Each structure stands twice: as C-alpha cells, then as structure tokens.
Amino acid sequence: MTPAERRLAAAHLAVALAALFGGVVTGFLQALEHAGVDLYPALAPVVRSYYHGLTLHGVLNVLVYTTFFIAGFLPLIAARALGRPLASIRLGWAAFAVMAAGLGLAVVPLLGNAATVMFTFYPPLKAHGAFYVGLTLVVVGTWLITLNLALGCRAWRRDHPDARTPLAAFMALATMAMWTIASLGIAAELLLMLIPWSLGLLAGTDALLARVLFWFTGHPIVYFWLLPAYLSWYTLVPRQAGGKLFSDPLARTSFILFLVLSTPLGFHHQYVDPGIHRGWKLLHAFLTFAVFFPSLLTFFNVVASLESGARARGGRGWVAWFGRLPWGDPSLAAQVLAMLLFTFGGVGGLINASYNLNLVVHNTAWIPGHLHLTVGTAVTLTFMGITYWLVPHLSGRALWSRRLALVQAWLWFAGMLVFSNALHRLGLMGLPRRTMVGAAAYALPEWKAVLPLVGVGGTVLFASALLYFLNLVLTVVASRAPAPEPPGFAEALSGPEHAPAILDRWRPWLVLAGVLIAIAYGPTLIGLALTTPLTSPGYRVW
Ligand code: HEM
Ligand SMILES: [Cu+2]
Fold first, then answer.
1. How far apart, in whole angstroms, are the C-alpha atoms of residue 202 and residue 46?
2. Which of 118, 216, 230, 386 has its CB surrounded by the most CB atoms within 10 Å?
3. Which 3-state string (H, E, C) describes 445-479?
4. How far apart are alpha carbons 354 and 426 in whole angstroms?
C-alpha cells in the first residue's frame, strides 16, 4: 500500500470515527432517558430535544460512520488484494471531497435542529434543503468509489486474463456494485422529490411514493454495511484464527447472491403501508427469505474456517474447539463476538420479515433491539476489530493496549446482550420505538421492570466505546512500538481455481439483478409515479 493510499484511508477513517463518537454519546442519552434519567434539559442548546438527539444518533451512526468507514476500507483492501495501486488516487480524493462536502452541508441543519427528521427522513416531515443536498452528495461520492474499484479490477483483468479476481477485491467490487444499484432509489427520492420540494420548486410531496423509493435503498443499505464485515470474516479472519478459508467458490457464490437479491425486497419494511398490493408484498417476503440463504452460506463457510484454525491450534471436540481460537487477539475476538451476536440478529430478522409476525413487532422497541445486534454489533464490533489492526497499520504505531482492546470487545458484547434483550422484550410488551418514553402518558406498568436494563446495557456500551476511542487516540499519539504487519489474506482449502468462470463475471449477474428489480418494483413504482399527486404539505413537528 502506498503512503498516498494510506492517507486517503486515514482521512475516511477519521471522519467515520468522529461520527461514531457523536453516535455513541447520543445513544447513551437515549438509553438513560429510557431508564428515567433525562439529561436533555442540561444539553440545550446543543441537543435540543430527544428527537434532535435521535436524529443525530441515526444519521451519524448508520449514514456517516458506516459509509465513511466502508469508503476508506474497501479501496484499501481491494488495492492490496490486487497487488497494485488504486486505479486513480485522484479519483479517490475526489470521492472523498464530494462526500465530505456533502457531510459538511448536511451537518449544519442537522446540528441546528433544522433537519430533525430521523435518519429515514420520511416526508411530509420537511428538513432544510441543505440536508437533502448534502446526503445526495454523499451518495454521489460513493459512486465514484465504485468507478475507481471497477477501473482497478478491469486493469488487473487485462494483465491476468485467465486468473480469478482475488477474493477480497471481488468482494469489495461486488459490495460497491450492489450499493450503486441499490442507491438509485434514494437518489431518485432526493433528486426528484425532496430537493425540488425543499427548494420550493414542487408544491407538495407524497409519503407513500417517497417511502417506496427510500426502502428501495433502505433494505440493501444493510447489506452495504454488512458485506464489508463479511469480507473481513471471509478473507482475513480465517488467517487471524490460524486457519484457512473453507471454500473460496462458495464465498463468491454468496456475494453474487447478495448482488442479485439484496434490492428487490424493500416492501418488507412496508407491510403495513396502504397503496401497495399485497401480492407484491408477498413476493418481497419470499425474496427476503431467499436473501437469507447467502447469509447461511456465510455462516457455514466462516464457522468452518474458524474451526480449521482452532483445530490447527489443537482444538478438539464438536464444540470445544471454539475455545482454542486465539482469543488473546483483540481484532479476532471482537469479530468472533460480533458473529455470535449476529446469529441472534439473523433470527430476529426472519421474524421481522414474516408478514404476520411483523405486525407484532412493527415500530416497537424490538426494532432498535434488532438494529443494535446487526448494524450496531455485527458491523460495528467487526469494524472495531478491523481498526485494531488498521489504525496501527495506518499510523505506523502498535496498538496502545491489546488488553484494553480485549476488555472493550467483551464489554460491548456483554452490554449489548443486556441492552438488546431489554429492547426486544419491551417491544413485545408494546413499547413504541422512536419515543421519549418518559414523556409518554400511556406508559404501561409492566415496562417499568425492564426499562432500567436499557440504561444499564447502554451505559456498559458507552463505557466500552470510550475505552475504544481512548485506545485509538493513545495509539496515534502515545504508542512508541512500531506497528506489526497487518493480517494477510487467508488461503483457501478449496481455492479460487475451483470457482467456475461464471463466478468471476459481472454482466450476467448485473442483468439478472436488474430483471428481478424490474419485476419486483416495476409495476408498483410505475403505477405510483403515474397516479400520485404530490399534494401533501410539509410539516415541521419539532
Ligand atoms: C453506546 C452505544 C449505543 C447506545 C446506548 C444506543 C442506544 C439507542 C437507543 C436507546 C435507541 C432507541 C431510540 C428510540 O427508539 O427512541 C437507539 C436507536 C438506534 N440506534 Fe443506537 N445506540 C448505540 C450505538 C449504536 C450504534 C453503534 C449504531 C449503528 C452503527 C446504532 C444505530 C441505531 C439506529 C439505526 C437506531 C434507530 C434510530 C431511529 O429509530 O431513527 N446505535 N440507539
Ligand atoms: Cu430490510
């Protein structure tokens, strides 16, 4: 990796981590509020309400932190896997500049309480136009990253016409290709509806059409967050565990399935929305179960790889081998703990996706309970584990304290068990999400026993996050030892030479993805676009 590439990655990472910091502070406030400790009056005018904080929490965590982390991580990994510099470092900086400019634009109304519309920004809630323009720029910046990766893979292909694209580079490009297709929904919503509306060029808006476009992107965005974590689990973690990837072709297959299946299923977020025929909702439900399949492939492949490492280290038995993983390595420990909690997240996801069970959990605290297992742990704790080698690698300095990092990972795991379990249970008792519970006149007595656990779990999580940031800051400013080599890519027991050529082609899969999207979304979108009058006025309810 060239020094220029490291600087580029470091710039992205710095923005990502600053966002995460804001994200955990606001999360802590919410958790305390649920437990009956309302700190918001003391925070005015910085955080002006529960909902101002909650919007910051959602946007900083799942729009800014994730996107900037991924935009820094994937090009770095792809360049390393291809063994060649990034196709264009200037294009890399241009992407960063566009994204950073967008963030700068969006953050002003966000902090100023002029865009308190949650990270989903559903109209007719109406934010300041700069918020929508800023978000659009962030999305456009990510497209430039796709372009850069595609150019890099194409150049590599010219030099190696008969070889399989190295797995990590393949996965990086598959992730960005999937995201680029998926982001067209949100781009259309912003460019055709929200921006002209906020600028006064359109008189009104429509909730349903906007929600359809939003969830076109809003479901696959979860795979945009997850796939880079999977990339680490497939290509780096097996080696960190002392073993080999079980199967390279199976890994490629799963990413191709994600590329094809991630987008045409957003209606599972809209089961209760009127105006979408239930037949289409059912199709999206089935496709949601289909996209669970590549996650099962991942589970099988990654666990088999971990097992190969543990057995090479002397592990025995059906289950006991698990204890033989190199648990003293914080990067590995964080990621394996992330996987463990993700299994619960996956089970919960199937419940959410089930048409009738969804009615039980819809818009209850169950949903943030689920979110924190998936993006809040599977993704976040994995990214934390990655930074335990990445920040030393970028700064040239060894991690300040491995022990502190281990404590941090376990604290996140333990805190999340309590926090997420409490939210799930409260959801089943009917506690609504996105609600300042202390101000709810309809509070049920049975919530009382469980709400404090949200505060306890949230406090442990917050402590874990503080240790994380402390360790990284001290690594950069105070660590004296030189950084060790970053983990290498894992070899595979069944290598890329076993992968049929079709698994290394793009066009057929992109076409298939397009066809499925056209079937799943075409009739509804065309119908809505033709018949929806944009008549709803905007509201500022905060
Ligand atoms: C210290 C750690 C954290 C704490 C204590 C925390 C706490 C909370 C709480 C209590 C809620 C529910 C708010 C409500 O429904 O009214 C929430 C929502 C949410 N959290 Fe966190 N959180 C933390 C970290 C994270 C992280 C790391 C992520 C993702 C990277 C995340 C993503 C979300 C999302 C997407 C929501 C839903 C927001 C919405 O409904 O608009 N959180 N968080
Ligand atoms: Cu979804």
1. 32
2. 216
3. HHHCCCHHHHHHHHHHHHHHHHHHHHHHHHHHHCC
4. 19
Q: What is the pTM of this model?
A: 0.98
Cα(24) to ligand 1 centroid in Å equals 8
Among positive and negative, which fits the CA dihedral 312, 316, 318, 319? negative
Q: Name the pLDDT band for 2 (thresholds 50, 70, 90).
A: confident
**With the CA atoms of 327, 328, 332 and 334 taken in that order, what torsion angle do they form, in degrees rounded to the nearest 10?**
90
> Which pLDDT score, from 0 to 100, does residue 133 have?
98
DSSP line for 240-263:
HTTS-EEEHHHHHHHHHHHHHHSS
Alpha-carbon span 337 to 342, nearest angstrom: 9
User: What confidence tens digit (pLDDT) does each residue in 117-147 have?
Assistant: 999 999 999 999 999 999 999 999 999 999 9
CB within 6 Å of ligand 1 — which residues? 23-24, 27-28, 30-31, 34, 54, 57-58, 61-62, 65, 118-119, 368, 371-372, 375-376, 380, 433-435, 454, 458, 461-462, 465
CB–CB of 404/471 below 8 Å?
A: yes
Longest dimension (CA), the chain: 69
Contact 166, 189 (CB under 8 A): no
Q: Which atom number of ligand 1 is nearest to the Cα of residue 55?
A: 41
Token reading at 294 = 């590549």
Query: Ligand 1: which atom is nearest the Cα of residue 458?
Result: 5
Helix 278-312 and helix 507-531: axis angle, to 10°? 150
**Mean pLDDT, the chain, whole residue set:** 97
CB 341 within 8 A of CB 373: yes
Tokens of 51: 């909902």
419: exposed, middle or buried (Cβ count in 10 Å: 0-12, 13-18, 19+): buried
